[in-house]
């Protein structure tokens, strides 16, 4: 039995089929696996996004792939190429973060949107509800965006408050920021799911990437591709 | 100190402000409280939706409010009036249910959409992945909808499978259907949040109402109203 | 071995020692036990408060003790007599509730305060953050109270928002209102503990009684009694 | 899109509004972020408290800010300046710790009180209930304090015992001291919430800072400032 | 395949082998099963103890077995016959209960001890630590017992306090008394396991029977029987 | 929108495709839904098995379908017809139960096997490890079976012990028998998963049906049918 | 008291008794313990498998035992010798993995099968359901295997989908791949247990070894050995 | 406020009062704190036991205290002096361990017993139930011991099996050995609490020290000392 090379079966048609192409969750993969995937993308001339790239993997990727790959250390993302621009989605999304510790997750959402061809994403940080004036000052700006990605850890009160003030869809990204009962982000996640303001939706803890994908699926006119199965 | 009447402060302007009006979660409220709210709505000529109305409360509401209120026993909803029609949203939403036990939650989503003015919601039930052909036969129909509300209990595998096949936004509604480890719906919820297909978003367990609200917020052009705070 | 009567050892000196007398948690006790305690209090001419009295126990208590006992069905409290008035604490406490389903717990706090001699408690209900204007309209009134007991279920965002707006001590009472992830009140409790606004303190889920006791201990000049142990 | 500098929106008016100024939770922030906040405080001549400063961040802060910042390695706090003295609160607070492993959390409470202008805080350590005489010897001293901050890990029995002996408000700070079932502090937290002695309130696990803030809010005459929102 | 009668394989030799005979946990068994077991015991002239007998099963047992079976409604026990007296164990065990709601569990321990031949069990109820004087008054009496079975719900602080005061072995029986975080008894159980006083051992929640068995095994000289396996 | 009849999409080809036909989990379905499914099966002349049929549903099914349906009240199963006999599987499976409270789950496994055409299933009950001799006496019989379905609640020690003694595949069915920490069956489930004897596999709590299906899939020569998808 | 050497009591007869010999879980053991076990095996000329061998232990083992031991760094296995070939089991097992991060666990299953004498194991990686076509292309191949070991982390939807398509027994191996709610693998495990497709069985998280053992026990004709106890 | 030295209030009289002297849990304390306690003990000529001493602290203790302190690296204990011999307890205790990974916890129990004056402790390792013959061979030896401390991780089946075979009191010490569902030891703990054999008692996970203390309290004639409180 041989296993070399057999572990990879990339879903290159996912973008055509679902509107969002496959990306690579670097956490849990070896540097060797990441480099193999990166090389396959380069060879195929396909753009690809890596998320949750820690420092050692980032270094290995850059060493192997050179300037073909671009890192954002704070967002922990790496990108090869970029998807086609979607100018019709520009300016429709805001990313709001409760505290400065939420910055990496918020930036992951921004970088994902950019990689998928969306520009003019508003990034509004450090507007947690403990100082409510900070958010209220931004409400008029937020009300013009069709999607508001709200990023918060600790008790996640931001999700309900924002959703009670704006007409756009609020996509909650709970973060693992905090300690004690909120360690790991479960409290913020549950706050999003239990939000008293109707229509809040949630993604997994720290999943800025997923929120960006959902934003694009919510905004996008339907793709013309077809299910590979039917 | 008097408390009679003081316990109610309905947010009548929520629809204008956020695109989705306040509804009433009947569970946890006394029949007397529900009737008071119903009468206030009738007096104000405002439509209102009650969710999770159990049989005794339904009977009390009908007895008190007569034909001003309409019940759906399976969906456990009660409605007074209806919001303005939004024909531009007709035919854009599908509700997909994994098993026949998920019907009440799926119907709650359908009834909410109808109450909020949306028609032509596709309801596709009993297409759980154990018999995958049932879902694959419907994929082409699902691919024409901009929002797919997926309703599933037990292990919630439906969420990932649907999201890998359609371009629309998949809003997962985990249900409390099942026993043992899946009692209460937490497994289905976590499956939605951990879905390997990107862009799945989740609402609370059994929350068909919330999924319908999110669908409308995702589809709706921004409302012209303003935040009551600013 | 005889056990009749031996199961009761009431802490009659607790008020003198700690500023708050012993009360009786009815849940978990038999009607017979509750009546025995009630009779002991009447015989001793000592006021006593019963909390979480369900309907059958309430009926049994009234049948046994007649008009010596007073019930509040919504608050689920029963009282025999009343502690001395503490006029210096009048008007210092507000009880704020997020939704109308939180009324029983909020009223338990109010009834406890009244039983312990405190009047002019502000009760402000149905000001959940989904309609933030409802709370903001009341902020000036809340800012004059030294203690704000905040009562909320679901995601408990009210705790952080109130604590960011008022100078008084916010005592959070999470409630078991909600379903799915918030069933049982754990999410609201954790939101209180993880609140991003500093200085929020929490009591057990649905524990309006405990919040009222804490309010009195926070406000009260030290009692002159002594520890029974030293 | 530029993000440099945009991640910070400090709530400088929080003290005026709520009686307790914003502090900085260092855990989860980068050294660069902490230094930026420190410099902003120095420039504004505003006192600021950092909590949970680990050794590498402490070193970076001292290197960048020199003697403008003061560290307490055991309490893991760093301070720039100090709030105005509040002599009317001197001598009103005691901090009681169950075991010597609870010292860092207890000291965080003490340092917070000092930074906020309060002196003469009694610190009584290593009086866990396994050797009850240690606590009973101190009861008379504790009974003269209006606030008792009780700090305990493991089973947290200290909270109930202290609250049954003293008239002041007991603010429980559960700690993450212990292993096995008590790893993480959840048992001590739940013991505080479930305390059989009425009127105990709790803050998050290891949150000595929050307990100190609550103590000040409980003791403080109302501040004259106003809500920034209204 | 026939299953009638085949479901029972009583371990009649357990007492000889382990010092404690098999008893019957009624909860989860049908009335028919209980009666079958009772009849087998009567036929065999073997004493047997049923625990957790609810009212309908008690009624069915009495109806079927008449005065051969003896019920204790508070302890929820039923007994047929009694094991041989063990006078050498008389007066060596105390059962201490924190609150009057703990009485059923405490009585289950007492009834088990009596059924197994032990008399002069001290039952001391309602000595929770919120009123510590109640326990301290009894310490001298408790110090003469080689085993102290401590029964407590809520936060279970009694376990640590007792264990710090007496030389006997403290067997903690957590109870499901309480609400909110302590619903189900897990907090009291964890408090027993995390007790800061060394040497506390715990049995399952509400398991007064198991504590009594452990007491007998701790006190008993080794039985002369042999393992059925070897 | 019409929903009548649309909620059912039975997977009649599952048996051909996977070796085990679709069955109906009655819990969570209305009596009306169950009757509709039963009638569809009768009309189609297809055998069908219902599991977890409570008493009211059983009564409704019998009333509607008469002697076409057969109930087993202890096993809580109902059957219409029966699958073809599979004599090559006779005598290859044993079902072992730890205690008499596990009987309903054990019988669900037996009835499922019988419905699916398997006879001569050994049912060995009440052989929990507290009286190990009961199991050791049966080991030789168990060693002749290729599949041993082990059914146990509480601590589930039976799974490891059996698996260390027999060569057949041990399929563990944890049950919800027990109270306190083992309420709900999670402890028994985890014991199966953590078994120190290698090769134990587990199904969901109380899922006797699933264990029987797995037994058949493990024993069965591959079916000749084909995937409906490919 | 001497303890040297006394800590080891290897179950050398397990293979004869149960069909699967004892293996060594390296995690939690010291390098010294592993070497002692390895030397005992070599001396006894008995094959032995070590699982979960981390890098330092691997290095120590190789240094001590030289070429008598063989490592697979990705699978984290070490082997001394090999069990007898079982050609009748060749080609009957497939191992299917959802993502490339699941490779180490999938390989642990393959290496275990090989060590136990089984060849021609199909290893099919990276066929997660987000790109369903990848799995559907392999269904015909999978349908020829009597056992399908499915390895998946995150939401574990693969288990249900595979089980609905193939006639062989599906043994689910949940992995700890993922973050947020799926950290640790509990979601994937619960998805396996709650699978809507009947007959899925599960082993512990990341337990590729256990799945391989179960496969062999399911396929193997009964061993002729005997229980050591009877 | 000065805190130097104030953090220590050792309970030197605990042994006289409860039969077991205070010991020091090194985990969570700084090396400085440990050395201070060690010096106090030496100065007072009091024996003292440190548990859970990791390698750096061990090195610091030896460097500071020289040959006054004795380390056992496997048991992670350090001792200064030794309590008086209690020859009447010699030979009454056995420590049984399921697997070789449980050795450190089992040795902690042995070292604690020795430090407290007990000799001739039987240590029987690696007798997990997967190879039941290993335990059965030792049953006769175990049946002569009045206390059996059983140490097991994973599923903890050893507790029930041993308790069903021996007349002595079984004190279960669950260990954190294992991975997946048994990571952290909670499964083994719950198995002990849910044991189907009556009379098993449990201590905290990995708490060999506590089990040894309980053994001594169970065996010891009552101490003549008195409660410090009464």
Question: Which features characterize this protein?
Answer:
2 domains; alpha/beta; five-stranded parallel beta sheet; Rossmann fold; 9 helices; homooctamer
Could you characterize the architecture of this molecule?
The structure is a homooctamer of 230-residue chains. Chain A is α/β, with parallel strands linked by helices. Chain A folds into two domains: 67 residues; 135 residues, Rossmann fold. In chain A, 34% of the residues lie in helices and 15% in strands. Chain A has nine helices and nine strands. The first copy, chain A, has a five-stranded parallel β-sheet with strand order 6-5-7-8-9, with helices on both faces. In chain A, strands 1-2-4-3 form a four-stranded mixed β-sheet, with helices on both faces. In chain A, strand 3 and strand 4 form a beta hairpin. The relative contact order of chain A is 0.14. The mean pLDDT of chain A is 94. Chains G and H meet through loops of G and helix 4 and helix 5 of H.
């Amino acid at each position: 039995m041989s296993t070399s090379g057999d572990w990879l079966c990339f879903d290159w048609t996912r973008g055509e089929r679902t509107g969002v192409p496959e990306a690579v969750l670097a956490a849990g993969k070896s540097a060797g696996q990441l480099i193999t995937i990166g090389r396959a993308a380069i060879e195929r001339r396909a753009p690809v996004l890596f998320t949750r790239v820690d420092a050692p993997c980032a270094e290995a990727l850059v060493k192997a792939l050179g300037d073909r790959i671009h890192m954002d250390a704070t967002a922990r993302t790496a990108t090869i190429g970029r998807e086609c621009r979607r100018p019709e989605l520009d300016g429709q999304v805001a990313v709001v973060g409760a505290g400065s510790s939420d910055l990496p997750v918020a930036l992951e959402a921004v970088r994902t949107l950019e990689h998928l061809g969306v520009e003019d994403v508003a990034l509004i940080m450090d507007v947690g509800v403990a100082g409510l004036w900070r958010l209220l000052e931004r409400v008029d700006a937020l009300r013009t965006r069709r999607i508001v990605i709200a990023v918060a850890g600790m008790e996640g009160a931001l999700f309900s408050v924002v959703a009670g003030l704006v007409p756009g869809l609020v996509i909650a990204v709970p973060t693992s920021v905090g300690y004690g009962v909120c360690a790991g982000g479960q409290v913020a996640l549950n706050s999003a799911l239990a939000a008293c303001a109707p229509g809040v939706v949630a993604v997994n803890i720290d999943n800025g990437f997923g929120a960006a994908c959902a934003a694009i699926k919510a905004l996008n006119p339907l793709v013309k591709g077809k299910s590979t199965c039917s």
